[in-house]
Amino acid sequence: MERGFVVWYTGVAASGKSTLGKEVVRRLRERGIKVEDFDADEVRANISPNLGFTLEARDENTKRLAFFGSILARNGIAASIAAVSSLRRFRDRARSMIDRFVEVYVKCPLDECKRRDPKGLYKKGEEGKINDIAGWHQPYEEPLTPELVLDTAKLSVEECAVAVIAKLEELGYILKTSEATEPAGAGYSPNEEAKIKKRLADLGYL
Amino acid sequence: MALFGKRFGKRAGRKVVMLGLDGTPYTLVRDLVERGVMPNMAALVAAPRRGLHDEASGFVQAARSAAGRLVQMDSSIPEISSVAWTSTMTGRNPGKHGVFGFTDLKPGTYDTVFPNFASVRTNVLWDVLGDAGKRSVVINQPATYPARKLDGILVAGFVAIDLKKAVYPPELVPRLESAGYRIDVDAAKARADMGAFVDELFQTLRARERVILELFDEGGWDFFMGVVTGTDRLQHFLWHAYEDESHEHHEAFLGYYRAIDTLIGKLVERLDEGTPLLMMSDHGFTGIKKEVFINHWLRENGYLDFPTDTPDKLSEIADGSRAFCLDPSRIYLNVKGHYPKGTVEPADVPGLLDELAAKLAALKDPDTGEAMIRHVYRRDEVYSGPLLKQAPRLVLVSNWGWDLKGSLKRRALAQKGFFSGMHTQDDAFLFIRGAEITAKAKPTVRDVMPTILALAGCDAPADLDGRSLIG
After folding, report:
1. What residues pair up with A183 in beta bridges, in sequence order?
2. What pLDDT, in 10s, does the model give residues B83-108?
3. What value does the mean pLDDT of chain B take?
4. Is the pTM above the cut of 0.90?
5. Nearest neighbour of A177 by CB, restricted to B119, B147, B233
6. Does B8 touch chain A (CB under 8 A)?
7. Strands B323-326, B290-293: parallel, antiparallel or unpaired by DSSP?
């Protein structure tokens, strides 16, 4: 059985972790790779709705996520985990628990995150209703040596997803058959298509 | 005995070996066997059956395996390698596997796409073997590009472009490169310099043989399959060199089949007699009398129109067009709602099909008056399954000698061109040693997968169109 891996997306709220994670998961599944998508907020809502957002609670939540990822990975299933995981020790602990661990720092300036604010979190912060947002009220410790840093203010979702897939290929965690399972006919670049046309024409098929 | 009891009962654990020869006709193999060009093949076909003295041991099949049987086989419809090989490795018709030709249309458009291995909607032979814990090594199987993961090794054949994407696992690529492995010959050379083309055919075969035998000898497989595609290339350009003994490349043609026979000999000497051996081609071949351009006929008879005389693409189709042909002989109707410029009312489809089928079936060679079309197949005679609606409405199969083409540019009904040989639908070959062919009907390429699964002791998926040929 092949070993799984964990892609751990870290970054402040609204930086694009879940969006990117879902896009990468979609691409991995297209290749026939078994992968589970964990979103920290969804896991909270399902497993521990009363956990809260204190430092201890965040500590607990990231520990659980790392545990889930480690179980899946050692059984040959990949996991995608999107969690703010604001402190380095949270991520370092996850790394120590998981054999093939890929830390992706999803970087985005605070102003841009405030502008996006899909969950209305920053709005609440502006209104003074909450005061525990990582990277604003609370520290967010940037990763020192992540496998990948992606600036989502500058790159598209697709560009970021391609970079994650390329990193997984580079690390040897997935195969370099980047177009193996794309839909009919869509798997060829214009250059390849031109070559195919020529070969078919040389044999009288076009 | 107790230790091996389980294996005997199911006749499981047997290895199976297959050699594919792309486009090699049954009638050619018979002829070359008789002429002494293929002595190893001759020995296989003529081998006497051993007695059944060891029947009690349960090795009846093994004892019989010294003999083999060579039979004629039907290809797919149409008899195009991508369709025929995909039908071979899936055991199903295109209405299930999804590959109808080298080209197809993006649904709802006139845009051409080139179906590839990712277009195949079903599992393939080695997926089923893999599920049963059996490991496959498959070399140069056409229509498997880009290669996808399997339990074993896959080196994709035509129309593979980039070796890195043609090979699973990718770690094998450097080894193939250092062995001088080539996916295909450069067919364009045949026009520029036939001698150089012939040299390249032999070089490519040598490198392919080297890789086939190396991976065979490394073992660790339960199913081994190698395909030679140079046979098809040779015949496309030099069929007349086979027929004409005074042709400058006549000896090269025979020499190529001698080399194939040597490869057969090398495989056979590596096999113990208990291991079944299959050989097959995906379609037959014959000499071209004329190329026949179906789209020209459709234009001349008012079914198809373009604003220019020699359009580049089908998407240039003019308003009012009612039918068009994709290579080689797949007829589609330009039905309202199905295509952007669709004009045929759905209610008029049956009448139009009857009219076209009758006229096309009656096509005569304009010079000799000979009938060019053997049969016009209706969609539901050829196809079944979830993709039925993507299938052509009619498919023509020609009589030997008239090579049907889907070209949009050629403005003649029937014309001799550069190509020498053409595919035939009814003259592929199948050879099996190691099991008796008990099926009474003529085999088709779809029967190969269930036959191999039966030989390997595996259950066939329930939705196969083919049937095992062995008892």
Report:
1. none
2. 999 999 999 999 999 999 999 998 88
3. 91
4. no
5. B147
6. no
7. unpaired
